[in-house]
Design a protein that fits this description.
GO terms for molecular function: peptide chain release factor N(5)-glutamine methyltransferase activity. The protein is α/β, with parallel strands linked by helices. It has 10 helices and 9 strands.
């Protein structure tokens, strides 16, 4: 089978399965099989695929047709300036979260705590962009922490990774605390796309309640774990800005809402003390 035929057939299979962005996803899977960037497929020689390449492509397309996320199929997601390993034990890093990273890099800090680190994408991106800084990532999931450690090693960043439920057992103070916590309310879970609901870890998506429990925990412990004048940055759902800002103000913080590139509220910036 020629490369052009494989591209067309893969896209057609995903379209028939009802996958939005079928051609894009087919190209991402095929490119991963071939070890190239998706953009290269348009200019690559129209060569015959090997039997092994065809098998791997067919397996990947079949997995995507069941709504498994592309990042889990190919094993990685590009986020900010780096490529991160992704598994079923972690959330797939979203482009919207880059807003949090960019906001963090506009602030003064030398050490950072990332709670609910998952793949480590936020923490590792920050440390890589600010040489000489120090960071700690925590997560309640041991398998997620192993993914984060692998990503730090692959990207060449040194960080500490600890298993913890928010601040439990965590000492020291930090200039900056960041988190992309589980913020989807339990009642909203059935409305998620199958790609998310059936494949990503529910503990990283929802608190099993109103979607605000993590913010309450982060805000309540912030003063005890921040250096003087420190900041907290948390990602939020686009309708949660007022509620999350109110949670932090209840604990003495000044707050500001940061929009993403689509103009939706995406990050709450909370500043504690002088």
């Amino acid at each position: 089978m020629k490369l052009s035929q494989a591209r067309a057939q893969a896209a057609a299979t995903l379209r028939a399965a009802g996958i939005d962005g079928a051609a894009r996803d087919a190209d991402r899977i095929l490119a991963a099989v071939l070890g190239v960037e998706p953009a290269r497929l348009r200019t690559a020689d129209d060569r015959d695929l090997s039997p092994g390449e065809i098998v791997r492509l067919d397996q990947g397309i079949a997995a995507r047709a069941t709504r498994q996320p592309v990042a889990q199929i190919v094993g990685f997601r590009d986020f900010y300036a780096h490529r991160f390993r992704v598994t079923r034990d972690t959330l797939d890093p979203r482009p919207e979260t880059e807003t949090l990273v960019e906001t963090a890099l506009s602030l003064p800090w030398g050490n950072v705590l990332d709670m609910g680190t998952g793949t480590g994408a936020i923490l590792i991106s920050l440390l890589a962009a600010r040489p000489g800084s120090r960071g700690t990532g925590t997560d309640i999931s041991a398998p997620a922490l192993e993914v984060a450690r692998d990503n730090a090693h692959l990207i060449g960043v040194r960080a500490d990774f600890l298993r913890a439920d928010w601040y439990d057992g965590l000492g020291g103070r930090f200039d900056l605390i960041v988190s992309n916590p589980p913020y989807i309310a339990l009642a909203e879970m059935p409305g998620l796309a199958p790609d998310v609901l059936q494949w990503e870890p529910h503990s990283a998506l929802t608190d099993g309640g109103d979607g605000l429990a993590a913010y309450r925990a982060i805000a309540a412990g912030a003063l005890a774990h921040l250096a003087p004048g420190g900041h907290v940055l948390v990602e939020i759902g686009p309708t949660q800005g007022a509620a999350v800002a109110a949670v932090f103000r209840q604990h003495g913080a000044e707050t500001r809402l940061i929009p993403d590139l689509d103009g939706r509220d995406r990050v709450v910036l909370a500043r504690f003390g002088a």
